[in-house]
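TICKET: design request
STATUS: open
ATTACHED STRUCTURE:
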């Protein structure tokens, strides 16, 4: 139980590193949706779809591969150095190619040329700091990690408020300021934040002697390339809907859909915080005698926390939408939120289950599962959006992550069986879904919905009281 407590402690620290910046980004959702028309918000969404895709491509699974081999290698400095040099060389090569073909590539992606140049700058800087950030996590320096992440977002948020709010409110004379193209300043703010982050992490470029080890590189690539393919498939699962909606419907719909999708950010924050704390822990704890039992307990508490979050957000959805997306022109897509929340909870369970193929070095299965999810996403969207509209995009996300979750469990129990308590896990998940459905039928009656939340909390206390007491005592 003490090991479990350590896991929760590390996850909370990394969670703060994730939550605080994301909370600040939540403020930007309100700022952007309040200032941008849905068409312009769609342009912002498409920009970050491409950013996500290229980020995965340029890191090609090296971050996860680094954790795997850093945790078990006796030559840890060589693992870091080889990872770092590899990413530097490929990133510089990418930059050279893009600079040569920048006009053609911008046209191919359908991006404004200025947007494209900013995209490249952000990508290059963000990829160059992947290894230093991973090094901070692997060597147990969450405070440093958190402070740099927080600084990045402070710069980004401050500049967004400067461009979107301060300049028009106080009549500041900013050279070249274009009030009709506010989207541009989101990307400029992002680039500035990436520059600051890069400068803060420069000292870690020289933490160890730079030495490229071919044997380690082959191990990293062999482990990491399926992670990259899985990552690309994940980007498709997460973003194909926001890319295809402008083409099958229109940008107005896509902007509204993307804005309401942001309301599910709280579940996304929870999952990301879990991953930041869990991935290094799972690898470092793998050799312990009771590792599988610990993983099973972590899964149960993850489902409990995620299910509680599902009920709370759905029960008070009107409050959340009013706080985050205050322009009612976006609310035409508000019905997607419960579906997207549940889809993200399934995704979190999938990430938790996925430890089996990472610990057994069978990362190709993660690739296969993600490809299956991508196929479901693409097929469902292309077939159903013309039939039922933007709601099909939300259902596609739920279907994809649901299929991936179930298949991962089945395969995991075959290759690396973990004694998950399915009865309890499904009980909590089913109860949360049932109570959430009831909450959706109460017409935002907060008295009834509060009772529903308390009912779920009562179930947690009833069935977990003994374990929670033991955990808190230790």
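STATUS: resolved
RESOLUTION: sequence designed for all positions
ATTACHED SEQUENCE:
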């Amino acid at each position: 139980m003490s090991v479990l407590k350590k896991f929760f402690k590390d996850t909370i620290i990394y969670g703060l590193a994730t939550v605080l910046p994301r909370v600040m980004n939540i403020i930007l959702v309100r700022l952007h949706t309040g200032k941008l028309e849905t068409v312009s918000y769609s342009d912002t969404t498409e920009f970050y779809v491409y950013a996500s895709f290229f980020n995965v491509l340029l890191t090609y699974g090296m971050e996860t591969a680094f954790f795997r081999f850093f945790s078990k290698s006796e030559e840890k400095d060589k693992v870091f150095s080889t990872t770092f040099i590899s990413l530097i060389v490929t990133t510089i090569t990418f930059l050279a190619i893009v600079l040569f073909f920048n006009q053609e590539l911008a046209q191919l992606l359908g991006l404004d040329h200025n947007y494209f140049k900013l995209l490249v700058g952000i990508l290059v800087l963000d990829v160059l700091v992947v290894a230093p950030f991973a090094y901070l996590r692997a060597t147990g320096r969450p405070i440093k990690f958190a402070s740099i992440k927080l600084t990045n977002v402070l710069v980004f948020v401050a500049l967004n408020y400067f461009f979107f709010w301060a300049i028009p409110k106080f009549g500041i004379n900013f050279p070249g300021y274009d009030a009709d193209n506010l989207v541009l300043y989101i990307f400029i703010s992002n680039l500035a934040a990436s520059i600051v982050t890069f400068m803060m992490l420069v000292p870690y470029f020289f933490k160890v002697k730079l030495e490229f080890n071919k044997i380690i590189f082959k191990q990293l690539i062999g482990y990491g390339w399926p992670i990259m393919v899985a990552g690309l498939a994940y980007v498709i699962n997460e973003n194909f809907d926001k890319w295809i909606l402008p083409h099958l419907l229109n940008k107005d719909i896509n902007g509204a859909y993307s804005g309401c999708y942001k309301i599910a950010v709280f579940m996304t924050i929870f999952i990301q915080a879990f991953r930041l704390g869990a991935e290094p822990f799972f690898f470092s704890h793998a050799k312990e005698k009771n590792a599988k039992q610990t993983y099973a307990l972590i899964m149960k508490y993850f489902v409990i926390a995620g299910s509680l979050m599902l009920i709370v957000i759905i029960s008070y959805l009107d409050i959340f939408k009013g706080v985050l997306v205050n322009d009612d022109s976006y609310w035409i897509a508000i019905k997607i939120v419960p579906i997207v929340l549940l889809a993200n909870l399934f995704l979190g369970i999938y990430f938790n289950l996925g430890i089996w193929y990472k610990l057994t070095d069978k990362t190709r299965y993660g690739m296969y599962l993600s490809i299956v999810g991508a196929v479901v996403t693409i097929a469902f969207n292309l077939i159903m959006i013309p039939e039922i509209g933007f709601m099909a995009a939300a259902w596609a996300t739920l279907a994809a992550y649901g299929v991936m979750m179930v298949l991962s469990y089945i395969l995991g129990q075959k290759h690396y069986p973990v004694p998950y308590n399915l009865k309890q896990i499904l009980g909590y998940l089913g109860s949360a879904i049932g109570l959430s459905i009831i909450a959706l039928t109460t017409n935002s009656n907060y008295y009834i919905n509060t009772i529903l939340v308390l009912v779920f909390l009562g179930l947690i206390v009833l069935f977990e009281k003994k374990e929670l007491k033991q955990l808190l005592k230790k």
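CLOSING REMARK: The mean pLDDT is 87. The chain has one domain: 2-473.
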